[in-house]
Amino acid sequence: MTEVIPGKYKGTRFRRGQVISAADIPVLLDMGKEQLYVCEKQDMQSMQDMQSMQDMQDIQSMSNVQGKSGMLHEEEGAIKLCVLCRGSYIKAAPVREGKIELFAEKPGLLKIDSEKIAALNMIDGLAVITLYGNRGVKADEKIAAVKIIPLFIEGEKLNAAAGICGADKPVNIIPYKHKKAGIIITGNEVFQKRIPETGSEILEKKLEAFDVECNEKVILPDDPEKISTAILGMIERGIDLVICTGGMSVDPDDKTPLGIRKTGARIVSHGVPFQPGVMLLLSYYEKNGLFVPIIGAPACVFYEHITALDVLLPRLLADDPVGREDLARLGEGGIGNR
């Protein structure tokens, strides 16, 4: 039973199996509970097993719990639903009031199968709640929760959920891969030292949040041949993520996009439906067995906290390929910081 003190507290005040004493009566009345109900269940061993569970790392062993009546207690149902939904690198909290919260075991990219989540939530009595997918998460960050809404639920509904989920879990984390990054700052004004170069420091701080080494950094003029040569040289030396900054607009003087094209990289898109960062260019160098993202970062990465670059980095650093359709989907919710 949940006790709520407005503005102060919400939590479980009485749990299954708790012995009620005379001193508890005023508390129950204050909670609006004037009657207590007793539930008798045939398969009590499974209930005792759940009460003794202290951590949910062994949750898979409980996945076949089911009462003889075909009805599942909310906590049994939550365990089954958790087993169906929880994928790689995810840990589960103990079950409470028919709900299990899921947390990231390590930093990585959160992948959500939106279609499966929607189908699960169409089953009356089930609730699966997650963060938006394709975003980076930190270790121990809460990413999802599964909940059985009624006190008891038909086993057939969990069987239907199993049919939806199949072998591929709808909630997963892809750990970041260790990367060596190269940064190319372009612009005659920077190359000629007319203005100080500060952009690389901002990029390095962004990459520090991931498992990335910034091994190389170079400042170049607005010369597409030199830009192309520098990119290819970095790739030959083992750099597996190249970020170019400066000169990404439609002005004729902006040569960075042409320099990227001259490498022979496959251009996914020059321009993405996300503000700030519309002028970002995403490409992949795909020769000689290599698969190296080359990014043309717009100027806004130097002064905006969240840009299109920040939205895409978790996917690029988890080796999750980004296609034209993925970029198109950024348009929904693409105004303002995420």
Note down, in words, how this protein is organized:
- Strand 16 (281-285) and strand 17 form a beta hairpin.
- The protein has helices at residues 25-30, 44-52, 74-85, 114-121, 155-165, 188-191, 199-208, 224-236, 256-261, 308-317, 324-328, and strands at 2-5, 9-12, 71-73, 90-92, 99-104, 108-112, 126-130, 135-137, 142-148, 152-154, 171-175, 179-186, 212-220, 241-245, 266-270, 281-285, 292-297.
- With 338 residues, it is α+β, with helices and mostly antiparallel strands.
- The strands form five sheets. A six-stranded mixed β-sheet has the order 13-12-14-17-16-15, sandwiched between helices.
- Helix 3 (74-85) runs parallel beside helix 5.
- 28% of the residues lie in helices and 25% in strands.
List keywords for this structure.
single chain; 338 residues; alpha+beta; Aldehyde Oxidoreductase, domain 3; Molybdenum Cofactor Biosythetic Enzyme, Chain A; 3 domains; 6-stranded mixed beta sheet; 4-stranded antiparallel beta sheet; 11 helices; 17 strands; elongated
